[in-house]
Specification:
Strand content of chain B: 5-15%
Oligomer: heterodimer
Number of helices of chain A: 18
CATH class of one domain in chain A: Alpha Beta
CATH architecture of one domain in chain A: 2-Layer Sandwich
Structural class of chain A: mainly beta
Distance between the termini of chain A: 12 Å
Distance between the termini of chain B: 85 Å
CATH superfamily of one domain in chain A: OmpA-like domain
Chain lengths: 1336, 616
C-alpha cells in the first residue's frame, strides 16, 4: 500500500463516515445517498474558514432539510450539488451553525464563529483553577494579548492600563523603569498607610505571585506569561491572607506541551525609539538673559550678579551691553564665544541643551527563543530572551541589557505523581546616563542642566575644551575632547541578577478525587550599584600663548581621589506551599474543598563601601587604590580612604493555614467559604496570629428551569456577592515592637583619648499591644453575556474598609520625649466600581473571513478616612488625617486673577483696604511690595484682611480651601482587534479622565519663578504678565515667587508641600495610544517548503499618540502620562525630577517584528503532523455537539465536565478541545476506521481474543510510515461510577498505546482519547471498547 | 494508602517544623538585657548624651545672633520683633530627658546585672546629664515640668502635668548634681569626659545663674504663682561659692600662664581646663575658616563699645582716657590689656608671618577675632574649601578654671563677702595672667578690690543696674576673659541686662575720613579705603569698602566730631532698616522663650493646662 492509496482510502472513508457522523449526532436525519443526483442541481464550491481565518477541514456542509451533505477537506474546500433555491447549513463542533441560502451561486465562502463561551474559560485563582462559570469572587483576567508582540522592555510597562482595577506608577520613560521599585502594583486604589509623618509616603503594593510565589514581574520574560489574574475582593484573595490584603496579582507562566512533539519558536523585534515629548527650549540667549535679570529684579528689587551664567559679567546691564557689542560687531564670535583681551571667554551662544543631551532616536532589539516539547513522561519548556537598548543620551549613553532564561520540566514519575522543576534566571544591567559634577554627586544630565543649562553657554570653547556648562552637563557622557575615555571614568551602573527555583509535586488519589500539591521555592535577588566618580576638564579662557586654562569639574582634591562606591543588596526568600484538595460530585451537588499551608521567610542584606583614589581605571579590588591608609584628609574614619561602609540585615517570616470550600447546586447556586489563620513575625509574640474569614455566593438565573430568554439576546447571566476580611501586617514593619538600642558611631568628639566610639541610643517608646489590621471588602458584581456570547459585560461595585490600620496612636505632647508608638489606630473606606465590556464578532469581508473585537473598561474609586487617632486638633497639614477627609485633597488658595494696577492692590479688600499677604507667600523680599502682575488671592476668611493660612487646622485655615484632589480619577482603557484574512490590526488606548495637577515653577521648566540658570521653555515667553500682556496666565517675573517656585518641593507630589493656587491647577487627564500592531500571517502553503510551520511579520508601535487637556495650556512640551507621579525620584537610581520636562523622556517606539515556529505548531489551527489525533478529537467533538442539542444531555455533559476537571492535567488536552481553547484540527475526510478493540468489565488488559487487532494495527502502521493512529476509549453505563469508567477508558487507551510503542510505533504517531461513559455510551458491556482510526 | 499517608505526614512535618512563634530578633541592634549586663555597653549609652556639650566645631560659634557684642545681620529667631508662640512647634529637650530617665530607671531594674559600684557611677553620670538638660530648659523657659521617670504610654496626668516651679526644679537639679558629685568615679585624663569635677562645675554655674537671674530680674515666684520655698537668692550664691571653692581647694587646677595657649594648642591645657573639646587626627575644628568668612551680611567682628571695656595695661579704664572716643584703631590699641591682642587683631599682628591688619571684608567693624584661630593657615596643603573648613587642629575649652575664679568672686561679692584676699586670688590672678600690672581705686588693683567710684562707662553703657564697683569690675572681667566662649548671653540675661542685645551699639573703629586711603597700623602703607562709591582709580593692596550705600550694604559711617565711626546695620542693611523683623530688638518677654502655641493647644485638647510665659 502506498501513500496515495491510504489517502484515497481515508478520503473515501471520510466521505462516507463524515455525513454519517454528522447526521447521527448533529442533525438527526435519514441517510440519503442521493447526493449526486444530476439534473436541476448545480455544484457549489467554497472554502469554510474558522474565526481566525484559517481554513476549516472537516466542517459539515449540509443541505437544509435533507440528509445530503459533505465535509470540507484539508484546505477547507467543499463541493456540493444542490438546487439553486436550497439553503446550506454549515456546522462544526464548537462553532455556531450557519445557514446560507444558495441563491443560484456556485461559489460560497464563509467563516464560522466560535461558540465556546467565556463561561467555560478556566481561571487561575488562589492555589488552583476554576471555571469562570463557577467563580463567585471578583477576579479580573488580563488577556495574554496584553503581552503578545509588545516591544516594551518589561512586564510592568505592558500592564499599564490593562485593567482599571490595577494602577501602576509611571515615573518616567526609561525602558529600565519598573513600577516595582516605586509603590508596586496597586489593586483598586492607593494603599496608603496613614502612618508616617516624615517619609514621602508608605504605599503598599499588591502581592504579585509568579507561579504561586512572590516575585518581581519586572524581571520576568513577558513571553513566558500564560495568564494574569487579578484577585480583587477578600473572597478571591482570602487564601493568600495577610499578603493579599492589598489585592493579589497571579501571573502564571506557560507550561510545557502535553503532546509528544518538539517545537521551536523564535520571535524578534527591531525597534526605533524617539522621545514622545520634549520641551522646546528658548535658545535666544539675549531674551533669556533679559528674562532672568528681570525675574531677579522682580524679587530682589535690584539687579545682581549672575556669576554662574556669565563668568565675567556682574549684572544684567553688562550682559545687555555685551549683546549690543556683539550686534555691532565689536565682539566677534567664534561658535557663539567671544574671547576677551585677557583671554577670558564670553558666551553668546544659542544652545538647546536638550538637543545636546539627547539623541534624536535610538534603537533596541528583542530576541526570544523557546523550545517546547514532550518525550514520554518528560515534558519541558525552555525559553530565553534578550532585550538590548542602546540608550537615548549622546556619547556613552545609557545602554541597558536584560536577559531572561527559564526552564520548566515536568516528569510523570508515577501515574499518580508528577514532579516539576521551574528554574528562572534573570540578569539586568543598566548604565545610567550621568552628568559630570561629582561635587553634587551623580545625577542625570538633564537635571544638571537645571543649574547650568542656560542657552548662552555653548558645549565647547573655541579651543576645543568644554565650557563649564558643557563639562558639567555632558562631561559624564562625552568625556574630554582629547580624552573621550574620561567619560567612562564616571559611571553609575546597576546590575540585578535574580535566580529562582521551584520544585513541585502533584499527586492524585482515589480516582483523582483527592489531590495533593506541594512546592518549595528558593529565590535570590542581588543588586550591585557601582558608582565611579571622576571629573572632566573645562576651560574659562586661554592664556597668553593661546592654550586653554583648564579647570576640573571636581574640586582639586577630588581629582586625586576619583572614588568608587559600591553598594550590594541581597534578598533571599524561601517559600513553601502545601495544598490538599478534595473534589466530588454527588448528583447535582458539586463540592470542592481545599486545605493548605503556606510559609515564607525573607532575609534582606545590604552593604557597601566607598573608596578614593583609583590605582587604575577599572579598579574594584579593595587594594587597588592609589592611596594607602591615612594619606587623604578626611573627616571620616582614620583609615582615610574608606569613606563609607554600611551593612544591614533584616529578617521577616509569615505563615498561614487556610481552607476553601466551593459548593454548587445544579450550577445555579454557587457558594464559596474561605478562611485563613495567619501569623507574622512583625508582631509581638502573643499578637502574631489572626483568623480572617470570607464568603461569596453567586446565582446564575440563566440556568434556572424557568429561564426562557433566547440566548440570542441574553446568553448568560450571573450575580455575585462577596464579603470578607483579610489581615494586613504590611504597615507594621520589621522589629517595630522591640525595644532595641540603635547603634551609632560617634566621630565628632574625643572620648578619653578615643576619636571614635560607639554610642547606643535608648529606644523610643514601643507598644507591642497591636496586631493585624483588617481589610474588609464587600463586593457585588454581575456578569452578563448577550447576543450568543458576542458581547460580555462585567460590572463590580465594592466597599473596602481598612480597619485598625497600624498608625501612630494618640498624639503625645513633647514631654513624652519619644515618637508615638504605633497601634491599631485608623480606619478608612474606599468606594469604587469597575465596568468592562468585550465584543467579538466574525464576518466575511471582501471574500475573506474577518474578525472584529472591541474591549473597553473603566473604573473609579475614592477613599475616605473614617477614624484617625492623633490629630485631635484637626490639623490639615500633610499626614494629619481627619475623619471625613477624602484622601488626596489639596488645600490651596483661590485667585481672583492677577493685579492689573496699583489701584486694584490698594482696594483689594474693599474700598481703601489694601491687599496684604503673609510673609510666607511673598513675591519679593519685602512682603509689603505687592505689585501689579502679582497673583491676587481671594480673601476667603473675612475675619482678617490679610491672606494667611491660619493655624492650618480645620477650624482655622485662613484663606485656604480644598481646591482639588490629586488622586487620578476614572482610569480607562479601550482597544480593538481586527483580522482580515491573514492580516491583522489591533490597538490599545489607556488613560485617565481627570487628574488635578498643580503647574508650578519646576514643572514649567523655566527659572523665572525659582530655578537657577536652567533652560527656559519657548512657550513661556508670552505667558507672563507685563503691562503690555495683561491677560497673561502667569504673574509678573519674580524669582523666588513662593507660590510658584520649586524650592521646597519634597518627594512625590502625592503630597503637595506648598500651597497651590487654583489658577494654576489644571486637568492633566490624558488618553494614550499605548500600543498598535499590524501584521501578516504568512500562508502555511508557502512556509511548508522551507520547513516552517508558522510565521508572522508585523509592525508594533508603543506610545504613538496621546492627548490631554493640558496641551491646550502648554502645548505638547511635556509627557503628560508621567505627571501623575511627578516629583523626585523616590528610587535610589538617580535623583531627578519626574515629570515637569526634566524626566527621562517617554519613548515612542516603532518596531518591526518576526515570529517563526519550527516543528509542530503549538497553537495553530491545523497541526500538520497531528492529523489523526485531531480527527479523533473532532469525532468526539461531534458527539459533544449532538449532546449539546438537547438540554438533558448538556446537563450530563456538565457533570462529566466537572469530573474531568478533577482529573487535572491528564485530561487537559481533551478539556481544551471542548472549551474551544484548542482548535479542532481534524482531517475527518482521511480517516480510516479499523475494528474496535473490546475489553472486559473493569479490566484494562488486552484480551487474547483482541490481540490480533492490535497486531493488525501495527502492520498497517508499519506499512504506512506516514500514518498515525487515534485510539479512543468508551465505557458502558451499566456498571461502575462515571469516574471509574473514565479512568478505565484512559488506562485502556494507554495500554494499547503502550503495546503499539513496544511494537516499534513512534509515540508521536499515537494519540489517545478517553471518554468513560460520557459519550457514545450504552448499557451494554460490549461498549467497553477502544475505537481505532488511522490517518495518513 | 500508605503512600498517601506518608506523603501527607512528611509534608505536615516539614510544614510545622516551624513553630507557632514566628518572632524574629533584630540582628542590627542589641536588646535591653545585653546592654544592661555590660559596663562597656552602658558606657556606649552614656556616650550618646555628650551632645549636650559643644563639639570642637561648635565650641566657639554659639554666640553670634544672641549676644550684644557681636553683630549679625539677623538675630536668632527667638529674639526678633514679632516673635510669638506660634513661631515654634516644639520645645524642651524632652527626648534627652526621657532617654536619661529610661537609663536611670533601668539601672534599678532586675535586667541590670552590673556591679552596684558601676550602677552608681552610671547613674551619677546620667543624673549629671539630666541636671544639665534641665538647667538648659530652665534658662530657656523658666518653669518646666520635672520628670524623674519615664512617662508611661497612658499616663496623661503625668505627661500633661503643669510646669513645676523653677525653685522646685532647681532642688531636683541640685539633688542630681550632688549625687553626681558624690558618686561619679569615672575620671578623664584628657578632660574630655564627665567627672565629679565637671559635676561640681555645673553645680557652681547653675547656682550662680539661678541666684543672679532671680536677683536682677526680680523673679520671686513661678509663672503659675507658686512662691519659692527651697532657696533664697543668697543661699544659691552661697552654694555657688561653695562649689567654686571646692574646685579651688581641690588643688587640681590653676591658671596657665599664657591665655592664648588655652585656645591655640592641640592639647587642652589640662591644668586649667575642666572639660574641653579635643581635636584629633580625624576630628578638627573650623575656626580659621569661620572667623575669616567674608560676607557683608555675616560679619565676624566684635564691636567697639565692648572692646572699650578692656582696661589699659596699667589697670586703668581705657574709657577714662580723654578723647578715647575719637581714637583711631592703632591709638586705641596702644597700651591696652595685653589680653586684647590675643583676642582680636591689633597692630603688629602677623598672619602667616606677614603683618596683618583687620580684613574689613570679614570684620567690617575692625575687630577681627583671632582668639580661637591659628596664626597661619590651619592646613596649607589643601585648597579645597570643604577641607579648609575643617582643618583646625587646636582644641577649645568648654569648662575652665578661670570661670571658677570669676564665679567665686561674683558669688562672694553678691554675698557681700568680698575681701582683698579673695579678690587677689580671683580677679587679681586673672588680670595678672592677662598681663595687667596694676589698677585704680575704681577698677581695683591686682591685690586690692575696687573701692569706687563705679566705672562710669560701664555704668552708662552696659550694666546700669550696678552700683557696687566690685560687682561692676567682676562683670567687666568676666566679659573680657570669657569673650566668645558661650557665656555672654546667659550672663547678660542673669544680670538683668537683656536689653543690651538691642542697646549696646554695634559700632566700629574710628577713621579720619571717607574717600581716603587709610594707613591703619602706621607702617607707611595704605590698608583700607572707605567710600560710598568706588574711586576711578584703585590702588593695589588697599581694600575698598563701601559704606552707607543703600544697595546691599550693612556698613555705615557716621560723623563723630571731625571723624567717621563705622557701624553695622542689621536686618536688610542700610536701605530697609526698620522695615522688617530682623532689626535689633528686645523686650522683657524675651527673658523666656514661649511655650509653643501648638503645645498649649495640645494640652487644651486633652483637658489639661500649661501656663504660657508672660507676654506671649
Amino acid at each position: 500500500m502506498n501513500q496515495k492509496f491510504i489517502v484515497r482510502f481515508c478520503l473515501a472513508a471520510a466521505l462516507l463516515c463524515g455525513p454519517v457522523f454528522v447526521s447521527a449526532y448533529a442533525a438527526p436525519a435519514k441517510a440519503d445517498s442521493d447526493q449526486n443526483t444530476a439534473g436541476k442541481t448545480v455544484t457549489v464550491r467554497g472554502i469554510v474558514y474558522d474565526d481566525q481565518g484559517q481554513p476549516l477541514p472537516g466542517a459539515s456542509v449540509m443541505v437544509k432539510g435533507t440528509t445530503q451533505g459533505t465535509v470540507t477537506d484539508l484546505d477547507g474546500n467543499y463541493s456540493l450539488s444542490v438546487r439553486p433555491n436550497q439553503t446550506l447549513v454549515i456546522s462544526f463542533i464548537g462553532m455556531k451553525d450557519q445557514e446560507i441560502p444558495v441563491n443560484g451561486r456556485t461559489s460560497i465562502n464563509t467563516s464560522l464563529d466560535t461558540q465556546a463561551t467565556s463561561l467555560d474559560d478556566v481561571i487561575v485563582v488562589g492555589y488552583g483553577i476554576i471555571k469562570k462559570a463557577n467563580l463567585t469572587g471578583a477576579v479580573d483576567v488580563i488577556d495574554s494579548k496584553q503581552f503578545e508582540s509588545r516591544v516594551a522592555a518589561n512586564v510592568d510597562q505592558m500592564l499599564i492600563g490593562a485593567t482599571p482595577s490595577v494602577s501602576l506608577a509611571t515615573l518616567d520613560g526609561a525602558p529600565y523603569r519598573t513600577t516595582n521599585n516605586l509603590s508596586g502594583y496597586q489593586v483598586r486604589g492607593v494603599f496608603q498607610s496613614l502612618a508616617d509623618s516624615s517619609a514621602p509616603g508608605d504605599y503598599f503594593g499588591s502581592l504579585v505571585l509568579i507561579d504561586g510565589v512572590e516575585g518581581d514581574p519586572s524581571s520576568l520574560n513577558p513571553n513566558d506569561i500564560e495568564s494574569v489574574s487579578v484577585l480583587k475582593d477578600a473572597a478571591a484573595s482570602a487564601v493568600y491572607g495577610s499578603r493579599g490584603s492589598y489585592g493579589v496579582i497571579l501571573i502564571t507562566t506557560k507550561n510545557p506541551t502535553q503532546e509528544d512533539r518538539v517545537t521551536v519558536n523564535y520571535s524578534g523585534n527591531f525597534n526605533f525609539m524617539t522621545p514622545t515629548a520634549m520641551p522646546e527650549l528658548l535658545t535666544d540667549g539675549e531674551l533669556y538673559m533679559n528674562i532672568r535679570a528681570e525675574a531677579y529684579r522682580g524679587y530682589n528689587n535690584k539687579y545682581a550678579s549672575v556669576n554662574n551664567l556669565w563668568p565675567d559679567k556682574t549684572d544684567a546691564h553688562a550682559i545687555y551691553e555685551g549683546y549690543q557689542a556683539v550686534k555691532e560687531g565689536t565682539k566677534p564670535l567664534v561658535n557663539g564665544v567671544y574671547t576677551a583681551q585677557n583671554g577670558k571667554y564670553e558666551y553668546y551662544a544659542a544652545t538647546d541643551w536638550f538637543d545636546e543631551i539627547y539623541k534624536d532616536w535610538t534603537t533596541s532589539q528583542i530576541h526570544n527563543v523557546s523550545v517546547n516539547g514532550k518525550s514520554g513522561k518528560v515534558s519541558y519548556l525552555l525559553s530565553g530572551r534578550i532585550y538590548d537598548y542602546q540608550g537615548i543620551y549622546v556619547g556613552k549613553s545609557d545602554p541597558y541589557k536584560t536577559y531572561n532564561l527559564r526552564s520548566k520540566i515536568n516528569v510523570q514519575v508515577l501515574p499518580w505523581l508528577t514532579l516539576g522543576e521551574n528554574l528562572e534566571y534573570s540578569y539586568d544591567n543598566i548604565h545610567y546616563g550621568i552628568s559630570s559634577t561629582g561635587d553634587d554627586g551623580i545625577t542625570a544630565p538633564q537635571k544638571r542642566a537645571i543649574n547650568y543649562g542656560s542657552p548662552n553657554w555653548p558645549v565647547y570653547n573655541p579651543d576645543g575644551t568644554f565650557t563649564k556648562a558643557g563639562a558639567y552637563i555632558l562631561g559624564g557622557l562625552l568625556g574630554d575632547a582629547n580624552d573621550p575615555d574620561s567619560a567612562y571614568r564616571r559611571d553609575k551602573t546597576k546590575t540585578t541578577t535574580g535566580f529562582r527555583t521551584t520544585t513541585s509535586l502533584e499527586a492524585a488519589f482515589f480516582n483523582n478525587t483527592l489531590r495533593l500539591r506541594g512546592d518549595f521555592t528558593y529565590r535570590i535577588k542581588d543588586y550591585t550599584f557601582l558608582n565611579k566618580d571622576a571629573g572632566v576638564y573645562f576651560s574659562n579662557g586661554v592664556d597668553a600663548d593661546g592654550n586653554a586654562i583648564e579647570s576640573f569639574s571636581l574640586s582639586d582634591d577630588k581629582i586625586n581621589r576619583q572614588d568608587i562606591k559600591q553598594v550590594f543588596k541581597n534578598t533571599d526568600n524561601m517559600t513553601t506551599n502545601w495544598v490538599a484538595e478534595y473534589e466530588n460530585t454527588f448528583g447535582r451537588h458539586w463540592l470542592k474543598t481545599m486545605v493548605g499551608y503556606n510559609y515564607e521567610q525573607k532575609n534582606l542584606h545590604d552593604g557597601g563601601f566607598r573608596k578614593y583614589g583609583l590605582l587604575y581605571e577599572d579598579a574594584l579590588n579593595e587594594n587597588a587604590f592609589a592611596y594607602a591608609s591615612g594619606t587623604l584628609k578626611d573627616n571620616g574614619l582614620e583609615s582615610g580612604w574608606l569613606k563609607y561602609s554600611d551593612f544591614g540585615i533584616k529578617h521577616w517570616r509569615n505563615a498561614g493555614l487556610f481552607f476553601r470550600v466551593n459548593y454548587s447546586y445544579d450550577e445555579r447556586y454557587l457558594l464559596e467559604v474561605n478562611g485563613r489563620y495567619d501569623g507574622s513575625s512583625v508582631f509581638a509574640k502573643d499578637y502574631q496570629w489572626g483568623f480572617f474569614p470570607s464568603v461569596s455566593a453567586a446565582w446564575r438565573p440563566t440556568q434556572e428551569h424557568w429561564w426562557h430568554i433566547d440566548p440570542k439576546w441574553i446568553s448568560a447571566l450571573k450575580f455575585r456577592v462577596s464579603y470578607g476580611e483579610l489581615g494586613d501586617c504590611m504597615s507594621a514593619g520589621a522589629y517595630q515592637t522591640m525595644s532595641t538600642f540603635e547603634t551609632k558611631t560617634a566621630t565628632n568628639r574625643v572620648y578619653n583619648g578615643a576619636s571614635t566610639t560607639r554610642t547606643l541610643v535608648v529606644p523610643d517608646v514601643k507598644d507591642w499591644h497591636y496586631t493585624w489590621a483588617t481589610v474588609r471588602t464587600f463586593n457585588v458584581g454581575a456578569d452578563a453575556s448577550f447576543f450568543n456570547h458576542k458581547l460580555d459585560i462585567t460590572g463590580e461595585y465594592f466597599i473596602r474598609r481598612n480597619l485598625n490600620m497600624i498608625t501612630p496612636g494618640t498624639a503625645h505632647t513633647d514631654t513624652f520625649g519619644s515618637e508615638t508608638p504605633k497601634g491599631n489606630n485608623a480606619d478608612m473606606s474606599t468606594y469604587g466600581w469597575e465596568v468592562s465590556l468585550n465584543y467579538n464578532t466574525n464576518f466575511m469581508m471582501a471574500g475573506k473571513p474577518s474578525h472584529f473585537g472591541f474591549h473597553a473598561s473603566i473604573g473609579d474609586n475614592y477613599t475616605i478616612v473614617d477614624r484617625f487617632v492623633g490629630n485631635e486638633i484637626g490639623s490639615i497639614k500633610p499626614f494629619n488625617y481627619r475623619p471625613g477627609e477624602r484622601l488626596g485633597e489639596v488645600w490651596g488658595f483661590r485667585a481672583n486673577g492677577l493685579f492689573q494696577n496699583q489701584e486694584e492692590i490698594d482696594n483689594a479688600f474693599g474700598e481703601g483696604i489694601p491687599y496684604a499677604i503673609s510673609n510666607t507667600f511673598q513675591y519679593n523680599k519685602t512682603a509689603s511690595l505687592i505689585q501689579p502682575g502679582d497673583i491676587w488671592l481671594k480673601n476667603l476668611d473675612d475675619s482678617d484682611q490679610k491672606i494667611t493660612y491660619g493655624a492650618q487646622t480645620i477650624d482655622d485655615h485662613g484663606d485656604l480651601e480644598i481646591i482639588g484632589n490629586k488622586m487620578p480619577r476614572f482610569p480607562f482603557s479601550f482597544g480593538f482587534d481586527f483580522d482580515w484574512g491573514n492580516w491583522y490590526l489591533n490597538a490599545r488606548f489607556q488613560g485617565i479622565i481627570h487628574h488635578d495637577f498643580f503647574a508650578y515653577g519646576g514643572f514649567l521648566a523655566i527659572n523665572a519663578y525659582g530655578l537657577n540658570n536652567g533652560p527656559m521653555t519657548k512657550w513661556f515667553v508670552d505667558k507672563y504678565w507685563t503691562e503690555d500682556n495683561p491677560d497673561a496666565l502667569f504673574p509678573r517675573l519674580a524669582n523666588g515667587n513662593k507660590l510658584l517656585a520649586n524650592s521646597t518641593q519634597t518627594a512625590w507630589n502625592i503630597k503637595f508641600s506648598k500651597f497651590p493656587v487654583d489658577r494654576y491647577m489644571f486637568n492633566a487627564g490624558y488618553v494614550n495610544l499605548q500600543n498598535v500592531q499590524f501584521g501578516y500571517n504568512i500562508p502555511r502553503k508557502l512556509l511548508k517548503k522551507i520547513g516552517v510551520s508558522d510565521a508572522r511579520i508585523y509592525f508594533s508601535g508603543e506610545n504613538l499618540w496621546n492627548w490631554s487637556p493640558l496641551y491646550k495650556v502648554f502645548g505638547r512640551d511635556y509627557d503628560v502620562t508621567t505627571l501623575t507621579y511627578a516629583g523626585d525620584d523616590p528610587t535610589e537610581d538617580l535623583n531627578w525630577f519626574a515629570g515637569y520636562g526634566y524626566q527621562y523622556p517617554k519613548l515612542r517606539t516603532l518596531s518591526l517584528g518576526l515570529n517563526v515556529t519550527f516543528g509542530s505548531n503549538t497553537s495553530g489551527k491545523v497541526a500538520a503532523g497531528a492529523g489523526a489525533a485531531a480527527m479523533a478529537e473532532a469525532l468526539t467533538a461531534a458527539n459533544a455537539a449532538a449532546d449539546a442539542a438537547n438540554a438533558a444531555a448538556a446537563k450530563a455533559q456538565a457533570e462529566a465536565d466537572a469530573l474531568r476537571n478533577e482529573l487535572g492535567k491528564a485530561l487537559k488536552d481533551k478539556e481544551d478541545c471542548e472549551t474551544g481553547k484548542k482548535p479542532m484540527a481534524v482531517r475527518r475526510a482521511e480517516a480510516l476506521h479499523l475494528e474496535d478493540i473490546y475489553f472486559e468489565l473493569n479490566q484494562s488488559v488486552i484480551r487474547d481474543s483482541e490481540a490480533y487487532k492490535v497486531d493488525n494495527l501495527v502492520k498497517v502502521l508499519k506499512a504506512n510510515p506516514q500514518a498515525k493512529v487515534s485510539i479512543t476509549g468508551y465505557a458502558d453505563q451499566a456498571t461502575g461510577t462515571d469516574l471509574r469508567n473514565l479512568v478505565l477508558t484512559k488506562e485502556r487507551a494507554e495500554v494499547v498505546a503502550e503495546a503499539l510503542k513496544t511494537a516499534g510505533i513512534g509515540p508521536d504517531r499515537i494519540h489517545t482519547e478517553f471518554y468513560g461513559t460520557e459519550k457514545d455510551s450504552s448499557f451494554t458491556p460490549e461498549n467497553n471498547r477502544l475505537a481505532v482510526c488511522i490517518v495518513k | 494508602m500508605k503512600k498517601i499517608l506518608s506523603i501527607i505526614a512528611l509534608g505536615a512535618a516539614f510544614a510545622f517544623a516551624v513553630s507557632c512563634d514566628l518572632s524574629e530578633y533584630d540582628p542590627n541592634s542589641p536588646e535591653l538585657s545585653e546592654v544592661f549586663s555590660s559596663e562597656t555597653k552602658l558606657q556606649y549609652v552614656l556616650n550618646d548624651f555628650y551632645d549636650a556639650f559643644p563639639s570642637v566645631t561648635g565650641a566657639y560659634s554659639s554666640e553670634p545672633g544672641k549676644v550684644d557684642y557681636f553683630p549679625k545681620n539677623a538675630q536668632a529667631g527667638r529674639y526678633q520683633k514679632g516673635y510669638d508662640a506660634s513661631a515654634s512647634d516644639s520645645w524642651g529637650s524632652w527626648e534627652k530627658v526621657r532617654r536619661l530617665n529610661y537609663l536611670i530607671n533601668m539601672l534599678h531594674a532586675p535586667e541590670c546585672t552590673v556591679s552596684t559600684a558601676a550602677k552608681e557611677n552610671f547613674e551619677a553620670q546620667a543624673r549629671l546629664f539630666r541636671a544639665y538638660s534641665y538647667f538648659g530648659m530652665v534658662k530657656e523657659y523658666g518653669d518646666v515640668p520635672w520628670f524623674d521617670r519615664v512617662i508611661g504610654l497612658d499616663e496623661p496626668d503625668y505627661e500633661y502635668k503643669e510646669r513645676d516651679s523653677r525653685d522646685d526644679v532647681m532642688k531636683y537639679i541640685l539633688e542630681d548634681l550632688d549625687y553626681a558629685i558624690a558618686h561619679i568615679t569615672a575620671t578623664s585624663p584628657d578632660a574630655t569626659c564627665v567627672t565629679k569635677e565637671v559635676a561640681q562645675f555645673i553645680k557652681m554655674r547653675v547656682c550662680l545663674y539661678e541666684a543672679s537671674f532671680r536677683k536682677y530680674n526680680g523673679v520671686t515666684a513661678s509663672v503659675t504663682g507658686k512662691a519659692f520655698g527651697n532657696y533664697t537668692v543668697d543661699a544659691l550664691f552661697a552654694l555657688a561659692a561653695e562649689s567654686a571653692k571646692a574646685l579651688m581647694d581641690s588643688g587640681k587646677y590653676s591658671l596657665v600662664s599664657d591665655y592664648r595657649k588655652l585656645f591655640t594648642e592641640q592639647k587642652l591645657q589640662l591644668s586649667e581646663v575642666i572639660l574641653g573639646a579635643q581635636t584629633s587626627a580625624t576630628i578638627k575644628g573650623s575656626q580659621n575658616n569661620y572667623f575669616a568668612y567674608t560676607a557683608s551680611t555675616d560679619p565676624k567682628t566684635l564691636t567697639r563699645s565692648f572692646i572699650n571695656t578692656y582696661l589699659m595695661k596699667n589697670g586703668s579704664a581705657y574709657t577714662d582716657k580723654s578723647g578715647y572716643a575719637l581714637e583711631g584703631w592703632a591709638d586705641e590699641m596702644a597700651g591696652r590689656d595685653p589680653r586684647l591682642a590675643k583676642i582680636v587683631r591689633t597692630p603688629g599682628y602677623k598672619y602667616d608671618g606677614q603683618a596683618a591688619v583687620p580684613d574689613f571684608n570679614c570684620a567690617p567693624l575692625g575687630y577681627q577675632v583671632i582668639k580661637f584661630c591659628l596664626d597661619q593657615p590651619a592646613d596649607k596643603s589643601t585648597s579645597d574649601p570643604d577641607e579648609r573648613e575643617k582643618c583646625n587642629t587646636n582644641s577649645t575649652p568648654v569648662f575652665r578654671y578661670a570661670e571658677v575664679l570669676l564665679s567665686y568672686a561674683e558669688a562672694k561679692a553678691e554675698l557681700d563677702e568680698m575681701t582683698d584676699d579673695i579678690w587677689a586670688e580671683t580677679v587679681g590672678a586673672i588680670r595678672k595672667r592677662a598681663g595687667i600690672t596694676d589698677g585704680t581705686a575704681s577698677t581695683g588693683t591686682l591685690t586690692t578690690k575696687p573701692t569706687g567710684p563705679v566705672d562710669p562707662y560701664l555704668k552708662a553703657n552696659l550694666y546700669k543696674n550696678v552700683d557696687d564697683p566690685v560687682i561692676m569690675e567682676i562683670r567687666r572681667e568676666r566679659g573680657c576673659e570669657l569673650v566668645l566662649e558661650g557665656q555672654r548671653h546667659d550672663d547678660i540675661y542673669r544680670w538683668g541686662c537683656g536689653s543690651l542685645m538691642k542697646d549696646l551699639p554695634w559700632d566700629g573703629i574710628v577713621i579720619d575720613a571717607l574717600d581716603k586711603a587709610i594707613d591703619l597700623d602706621g607702617d607707611g602703607r595704605s590698608d583700607v579705603y572707605f567710600c560710598k562709591k568706588l574711586p576711578k582709580t584703585l590702588e593695589t593692596g588697599v581694600s575698598y569698602i563701601i559704606v552707607n550705600d543703600s544697595k546691599n550694604t550693612f556698613l555705615t559711617a557716621t560723623k563723630v566730631g571731625s571723624k567717621q565711626q563705622l557701624g553695622f546695620v542689621p536686618g536688610d542693611g542700610v536701605k530697609n532698616v526698620d522695615k522688617n523683623s530682623k532689626q535689633r530688638y528686645w523686650e522683657p518677654k524675651f527673658l523666656y522663650d514661649a511655650i509653643p502655641y501648638i503645645t498649649v493647644q495640645e494640652y487644651k485638647a486633652k483637658g489639661y493646662t500649661i501656663t504660657q510665659n508672660p507676654g506671649y
